[in-house]
Amino acid sequence: MACLGFDETELRLGLPGGGNDAEEAARSSGKRAFEDTIDLKLKLEQPAPAVAQKDEKDEEEEAAAAQNVVHAATPLLSTPAASVATGGGNMKRSPSLTSVNTAVLPDPEKPRAPKAQAVGWPPVRSFRKNIISVHSQKGKADDNSGDKSGTAAFVKVSMDGAPYLRKVDLRMYGSYQELSMALEKMFSSFTIGSCGSQGMTGMNESKLADLLSGSDYVPTYEDKDGDWMLVGDVPWEMFVESCKRLRIMKGSEAVGLGQSLYQQTSMMYCHLASSHS
Amino acid sequence: MIYFPEEVVEHIFSFLPSHSDRNTVSLVCKVWYEIERLSRRAVFVGNCYAVRPERVVRRFPKLCVLTVKGKPHFADFNLVPPDWGGYAAPWIEAAARGCVGLEELRMKRMVVSDESLELLARSFPRFKALVLISCEGFSTEGLADIASHCKLLRELDLQENDVEDRGPRWLSCFPDSCTSLVSLNFACIKGEVDSASLERLVAKSPNLRSLRLNRAVTVDTLSKILMRTPNLEDLGTGNFTNEFQTESYLRLTNALEKCKMLKSLSGFWDASPVCVPFIYPLCHQLTGLNLSYTPTLDYSDLTRMISRCVKLQRLWVLDCISDKGLQVVASSCKDLQELRVFPSDFYVAGYSAVTEEGLVAISSGCPKLSSLLYFCHQMTNDALITIAKNCPNFIRFRLCILEPRKPDAMTNQPLDEGFGAIVRECKGLRRLSISGLLTDKVFMYIGKYAKHLEMLSIAFAGDSDDGMMHVLNGCKNLRKLEIRDSPFGDGALLGNVAKYETMRSLWMSSCNVTLKGCEILASKMPMLNVEIMNELDGSSEMEENPGDFSKVEKLYVYRTTAGTRGDAPNFVKIL
């Protein structure tokens, strides 16, 4: 258990609620996540009401996740997610930009389109975006991974049920939490863990089994040796080095991966439970 | 009709400057078709799926220079899913079978495998030039094959490709006998580079005129290389941090002084402001400068450099330059023809130091400006009208206001009048990208005035089908139309179907076209491929609901003689 005392390995789960100060942190962390997900957001065709619901849920999750960030140790605070200023204003994503339907006709009388990012906007090539973003991340993060900051670490990401892959540059993120949020936005039906309103303390092995066997998704990755591992089991930097591709599996399938995966997951959740009690 | 001997006709054809001219003469009569095809050296294929590779090779057996483009332009912005297509292999294989005299291959937005590169390297004994732009699918091992086997290689130009790094071995694969290199660009290679190999390569390449290094190349190495290339005309520096030895500093200064032919500079990866003064002795002779990968330089660093570049014709910068900086450019660079200002902050509500004022200053100081790409956060109609009057010579005008549907920053009106002025004044306009709040009116102007427009990019604009109809009906020379997030539907799609046969392609994503509309288009126009990409795996859905009015997420329509392509992935449905 002692070996799991790394904040970096913590896979942040979406806790409900969160106070006002969490909201502000939510905006900043949300903003950063938007920047990271410029290329990643998968625009799923959803009816407008569902989208609105999704927005609320996202904000809740962001608020909760941000709360975790706020309480976390310094290394996480120095990541761009926390350090970016709030300038973003309304973070609520309007259906007109997140959904497929752009039937909303521009009306000069209405307030301008909310300041959310659309996929592939602004129209800047990935090559260029990587150079500029990596550079700004390098400037903000304190650690000296300077030598490798120029190299991207693109991996394919597939989600069970989604019709095609996306590609993600792992070096665009500083932590599992950032990656998790990016993936979440990318495949918007993806939920790492809706532990429900019981919160972390309610987590135990049987609930974990329910989680994994339910319709929730679990992120896994193939490492250099060709083994499939659960995302979050090694320190972030090590993960970036060894990850060759990502697969977001249906929970029910992940259980089939084997006991070790199960154990890793439960150890991870237990750690989270203990750190937040 | 006067009959000339074939040799004479062929000789006359050799003076025709463009592909389209040669295409035209080939249509005159059978004799001319035969003469033309047997003497054609360079072929340009704008859409790799418009024609089968075997057919091209069969028609032009003397093919020496082949250019092929693959994915639609919006693939650059990740709007086209991976594995969509655009494979180079069929082209290289067909050429390997049918025209072994191939000397140059240029590809853009295609998927090129290492196997294809190896086949390329081994199949064409006279191969001289490989240019790959925005391609992917290959690694440094493929480059090793090119280096090893292309004994006459003159040009290896890799621009913004996604190359898998499998080590620096490739650079040492050039045999000692290969001394013909004129142009080498490996700026997009992500990994390490073996300095000794690089220096050896440069030492044995007396004809080297263009060299673009990647980020891994240190100033120490650069200084050694430059000592050997006094005739260099185009340089992309490597890493330009301020951590290098005094020895290198002296060497660099000496070397740069000797490079009297150096006209174009780029790179400046991680450039620290301290390094900027090294470049000062060169500034007066520069015609091209690309500082757009260097967010570390601020307004004052940039202007100190650029104010000395009095002969500058092409400038690429980040918006850190600010409006003030652009005023300095406007007063110093009177010969400026091309300007690109890229965003340093991609967040829509973030900060940018450039506004409409910077662009107005440029337009009044640089009347020769003909090509523009400008990212900013705000624009006004007045500014655009002034710009149009100052610079009637625009051929390419691409304006990207970062916030979708943002109105005139002063009046809160749509920017219809501003863009209207651009198309009205700039009679030679060939390429246009519009942004900001725009109604159908802007399209009315475009259709009415933009008679030479060949490519139009539309995002978050328009009110109704009328907008798109104005463009389809009015722009006689339109070749490529790409639209995203705009309220154009089946009415517009089907309003002028014959138009699509005169165009290379149409892209529509997140618009209001439905499956039904696309099916109608496909049935009316058999010479078009109508490709649909939907987010959800819609193949079963589409079959179950033949009359479905569900919106199509992504639509790509192009004319073709090749029929349905066999390499489409399962998320692409070709109607």
From TrEMBL, chain A:
InterPro entries reported for this sequence: AUX/IAA_dom, AUX_IAA, PB1-like
Entry GO terms, CC: nucleus
Cellular location(s): Nucleus
A single GO BP: regulation of DNA-templated transcription
Family: Belongs to the Aux/IAA family.
Name of the molecule in the record: Auxin-responsive protein
Pfam families: AUX_IAA (PF02309)
Residue intervals of the PB1 domain: 152-251
Region annotation Disordered: where it falls in the sequence: 1-32, 45-66, 81-118
Keywords attached to this entry: Auxin signaling pathway, Nucleus, Repressor, Transcription, Transcription regulation
Source species of the chain: Eleusine coracana subsp. coracana
Compositionally biased intervals (Polar residues): 93-102
Assembly information from the UniProt record: Homodimers and heterodimers.
Function of the protein: Aux/IAA proteins are short-lived transcriptional factors that function as repressors of early auxin response genes at low auxin concentrations.
Presence of the UniProt keyword Nucleus in the record: yes
TrEMBL record, chain B:
Biological-process GO terms, alphabetical: auxin-activated signaling pathway; pollen maturation; SCF-dependent proteasomal ubiquitin-dependent protein catabolic process
Span of domain F-box: 4-45
Cellular-component GO terms for this entry: nucleus; SCF ubiquitin ligase complex
Principal location listed in the UniProt entry: nucleus
Keyword Nucleus attributed: yes
InterPro entries: COI1_F-box (IPR041567), F-box_dom (IPR001810), Leu-rich_rpt_Cys-con_subtyp (IPR006553), LRR_dom_sf (IPR032675), Transp_inhibit (IPR041101)
Record key words, sorted: Auxin signaling pathway, Nucleus, Ubl conjugation pathway
Pathway assignment: Protein modification; protein ubiquitination
Matches recorded under Pfam families: F-box_5, Transp_inhibit
Subcellular location per the Swiss-Prot or TrEMBL entry: Nucleus
MF terms in GO: auxin binding
Summary of subunit composition and partner proteins: Part of a SCF (SKP1-cullin-F-box) protein ligase complex. May interact with auxin and auxin-responsive proteins.
Protein name: F-box domain-containing protein
